[in-house]
Amino acid sequence: MSKTALIVDDSRTMRQMVAFTLTNAGFTVIEAEDGKDAVNKVSGGAKMDIVVTDLNMPEMDGITLIKELRKMSTFKFTPILMLTTESALEKKQAGKEAGATGWIVKPFNPDVLLKTIAKVLPA
Amino acid sequence: MSNEFAQFQDAFFEEAAEHLAVVEEGLLQLEQHPEDLDLLNKIFRSAHSIKGASGMFGFNTVAQFTHKMETLLDLLRNGQKAVTPQVADLLLRSTDCLKTLIDAAKSGAPVDTETVQRLTTELATASSSDRSSSPQAAESAKASPAAQVDHVHEYTIDWTPPEWLFQRGLDPLQILKELGNIGTLSQVTIDTSRLPDLAEMDPEKCYLSWEMRLKTGKDRKAVEAVFEFVREDSVLTIAEEVRGKELGGRSDEAKASGESIGTDHSSPTPSDGNEENPKPLGEILVESGVVSRETLDQALAQQKRVGQILVEQKAATPQQVEQALLKQKLQESSAQAKKTDTASIRVDTAKIDKLINLVGELVITQSMLSDLGARFEMRQLPVLMERMADLERNTREIQERVMSIRMLPIGTAFARFPRLVRDLSTKAGKKIQLVLSGEETELDKTVIESIGDPLTHLVRNSADHGLEPPEERLDNNKPEVGTIKLNAFHEGGTICITVGDDGRGLNRDKILAKAIKQGLINENDKPTDDQIWPLIFKPGFSTAEKITDVSGRGVGMDVVKRNIESLGGTVTIKTALGKGTTFALKLPLTLAIIEGMTVRIGRETYIVPLLSILESIQPKRESVKTVIGKGELINVRGTYLPVVRLYEVFNLQPEHTDPVKGILLILETEGERVAVMVDEILGQQQVVIKSMEQNFRKVEGIAGATILGDGTVGFILDVRGLLEIARQGAPLAA
């Protein structure tokens, strides 16, 4: 069975690029356009193998989303990667405290994205 | 940056344009509501999105510039800096510049580095006065840490992860595996000393520590990178052993593994996504050895830009030069954009779904009809009629839905006006507020694209001529702030757009005086108001006393009218002295379908665009006159109009050759009128326009063709062309 990934980003282009990369790598991808949308999409009990989320988003930001996800039994141990820009690295700490597994610094290339995911994805 | 992402570039540019619009609109609103945090957040997010995505395509100039804007926006957002008009203005100018940068990235055109540099400095100054933060120099970070293969290293790694490791979705096993991927792990020992009794143990916590040896061809950084996500929270020591001292006997193996790692070292991808321009002259000269690099650099250092020279000669201020440069960029890029614009349209899926649904219904109706037709009896006639009614309903609905796919809210055409009005009010020293309504009114994409310029002209006109300066307004007991209102609404099968101001209104006497001076009106005439106002649409007609930067150069209003009429629309004016002027544009919803009047000449049917028909008359004998040199004329309530006998133009066999027996349609376009003679008026119907040029060739007097209800082809009259024919006086043989 293919692995599942939840991609959360309010930028359509970014979302599509991440989704494209992961789909090509054999993932089944679910996209959400902000934290609230993401929570709505998985609150029914859907399980994901990995979550990739942007931090700066309307409605619900990435940090809050990570906190919310960690509260759910289905996402307690799921690897969650945050997409951050160099300048937002101070957010890294907040993200870690919220329960983020790791981060990917924008801009990235597909290789880095896949490698980072491979790094945290349970076998 | 990466070819794999190249296919998303178009999507990026589309999205970037949306974000730019949000930023610009937001900044304009921000001037009025400097305290609005939601607004600031929105602007920040859009800038942030542009920055993030542009970096992905290697548009580093865009990313870096946006970063500077973002830094300032962040300070505003956090309340560390106040939103002053200067800051808002700087951000607006930066947005313009960003626009040109993005366009440059799109078209590959060179970037005006001078302006970028200046604005970058300005942004940095605005951001830094409160907080002397060091500029983030490494914005264009290399995404992949290039693996370096030189020596084989041996590390002893001691790692105690934080207890909450699992709660962040991390797995120590993953890290060990990763280490195994970059080298050879040996002597892995687990320290379980911290493991509590089973009763006290929290299975969600990590109590273990590891010690291991790693032999790898990669350097320390690569090893540290494995621990990237946990390093700061772990107790981690990575100690390098001197190679060969302890495990010297196995150094051959180490070398071998080092080499095997070396082979999968991937070369870093070149990151020059937007630099496919031909090389500059100097580069080529250096390459071919004509001059040395130093000579070139010296020569370039002496070279000055036109702007710089002008500034030095005090012929222009730096600001003026910058403005002009920006303008040039915008013009270049808009010319580019026009060329490269792909005619794609984004359609709401709901619209498509509904359409598919309707097509389904159509198929059902069709199969019911063919079923009925296969074994039809006369007593089933009512059923047939019912099915036909269904078919008609389905067809009409599908037609409407398909049309609606091309429909966009007019808000997209209105979006440019807040900025325009702001700039105009600063320039003219007037206080103007813009009120938009009916932005959601939908109309055809092509129509929206074509009305932008005429609307801009009208708004400029209102701001410049319509509204009075604040002092004059106060003197006249009017609010200091003038209002320009843009409104759009549907009216029957047309869309009505109004551009109104509460300014001084049109001055009847001034216009009349000018018209008499230009010989448009006879001095003794007593024209009505409705005859006077349209005079401002005459070419070269301007009553403005002084020519300003904005408008009043005597070109424009005639162009507005011509543009609108070429879209099959009309312009009317409502004005009251001292109270304001409102221009009302009436446009067809689409250019593909027109409301037409079907008329008969002999046995042929022609269609006349309904919007151009003023009235139809049966003239009295005495009102038809023939004037030498001017042909046949008809007197309609005192005005003589040329008569065009369509049967002569198209070489037909008519029923009547006498205007008194036939019917004369009075048609108007661009303020000129013509009487067209036909045999009979048949009725009114919507017709789909098929192009003549595309399917046959251009025919004088014919705008297009359509298929009539009985399957025959009907021609749609070109009113403008008919006017030409009337002017030439001699009928053309078709």
**Protein structure class of chain B:** alpha+beta
| Straight-line N-to-C gap of chain A | 13 Å
Q: Helices and strands of chain A: which structural class?
A: alpha/beta
The succession of helices and strands of chain A, N to C, reads EHEHEHEHEH
Q: What average pLDDT do the residues of chain B reach?
A: 78
CATH class of the largest domain in chain B: Alpha Beta
CATH topology of chain A: Rossmann fold
Number of domains of chain A: 1
CATH superfamily of the largest domain in chain B: Histidine kinase-like ATPase, C-terminal domain
Radius of gyration of chain B: 37 Å
Percent of sequence in beta strands of chain A: 15-25%
The coarse silhouette of chain A is globular
**Termini Cα gap of chain B:** 61 Å
Report the CATH topology name of the largest domain in chain B: Heat Shock Protein 90
Task: State the CATH architecture of the largest domain in chain B.
Answer: 2-Layer Sandwich
